[in-house]
Amino acid sequence: MYVAVKGGERAIDNAHAFLAEERRGDPSIAEIGTDQIREQLRLAVNRVMAEGSLYDPDLAALAIKQARGDLIEAVFLIRAYRTTLPRLGHAKPVETAQMAVTRRISATFKDAPGGQILGPTFDYTHRLLDFTLMANGEAPSAPQAITKAAPVPHITTFLGRDGLIEEARPDDTPPPDLTRQPMELPASRATRLQAITRGDEGFILSLAYSTQRGYGRTHAFVGELRIGLVEVEMDIPELGFTICIGEVELTECETVNQFKGSRTEPPQFTRGYGLTFGQNERKSIAMSLVDRALRWKELGEDFTGAPAQDEEFVLMHADNVQATGFLEHIKLPHYVDFQSELELIRKLRAEAMAQKEAAE
Amino acid sequence: MDKSPQMSSPLPTQMARPDWLGLLARSRPAHLAALMPDPLPDHHLLRAPEIGAVMLRGRAGATGAPFNLGEMTVTRCSLRLSCGTVGHGYVQGRDKAHALRAAALDALLQTAAGEKLQSRILSPLAKAEAEARQTRAAKAAATKVEFFTLVRGEDA
Fold this sequence. Notes:
The structure holds two protein chains of two kinds.
Chain A: H1 9-24, H2 34-40, H3 42-52, E1 54-55, H4 57-66, H5 71-82, E2 87-93, E3 100-105, H6 156-161, H7 189-197, H8 201-212, E4 220-236, E5 241-257, E6 270-277, H9 281-294, H10 311-317, H11 320-328, H12 335-359
Antiparallel strand pairs in A: 3-4, 4-5, 5-6
Chain B: H1 17-26, H2 29-35, E1 43-59, E2 66-81, E3 86-92, H3 96-109, H4 114-141
Antiparallel strand pairs in B: 1-2, 2-3
Helix pairs in contact in B: 1-3, 2-3
């Protein structure tokens, strides 16, 4: 039975007005500008860009303001917006070897060519609340050092020279796009990487952590973590040549993992890969661990039943917009569904009571 | 495109078209507008400024098979000047006026006036970009770890 129910429009309008007022907070306190969010809450902006899968710091800042700081809601707003944009094409794969690094560290080689560059990191801070930030302080300024324009090669290239690590062979297979075609399982590594880089940071972090605790262990070291700006290049048909169409900040992580070797491969290290929008290193490291765990089949390892090895489990649950949509829809009116359940349980109870009475 | 490490933008006397298109794509809209104020030269729009998305790609293991990383907002515009020269603008972000200005400048740079505009508009843009990159690189360089080994007990 379908029952059309009207009403509630006034309540909804007023609820939205109440939401707008609550969003603004105490009007005697200055309103926050989206430019302030973009500049001063940059890691929140980065997370919304990564999971919203759209690089645009201004839009991410607006989404954060509109969502009152609820980052999953902000990701939802960005995803909804991006569906309205025409796709102008695809860029050439970014050249992360050419990255202008602001941070670059290796946990495997102390004296890596290019050096260990700490950059703007929370590492080595004491995690004590800094009360000077509560007062309006001066704009701090960072020291500068003379730079030499030296290349910063990927760490894995050193191991690769001696054949100690698996190669990432050049390949130009066009990748499937899960925003255009439904995801198919088993998925290619390209699909997995796309799903993980836009997946929920908390979910990917927990899966990565589970592999470290023994659920699909891969013995990962951070071979290299680098953060910086890369240029985006695209072939423009009307021009007939390639141009740079912008510049994006990315975080890249390459893990070096233990591997025993197989019948076809000599013992060598294997690799996991993480790449995300913005400065986003927790996500990028977690991504590379989960990427490596999901490669068990290709590397001839055992499936131990660990969640991080289970492609379907990982890929079907990583998207927080899908997850929150399904989770939260159960709070919306289900009056008719519930009415039928109520009738059923009343009937079952009546039958059970009748049987009990008959038995007595 | 320039492929030197650290993406340092050269400041040549004459920039090639792919290089100036890239510089305009990355430039700050306000900076370009200040260097090239309205009115724009007479033109006919071939493609009105259009906001869209471009899918960015990475490579597994940095050098392997490509995968889709996520999209980026881009605005594009094409026009023809009254002299017949066609200009294209592809700029990062959603600023339609910026894309229009970039397309107009791309056309003008191909005309006889190009040489003058190179020094009046492109040079300041390239200089600002090079300075911003240099400052960022210098701050990063200041955080480079200089390891030293402490004298160990058995060596003393």
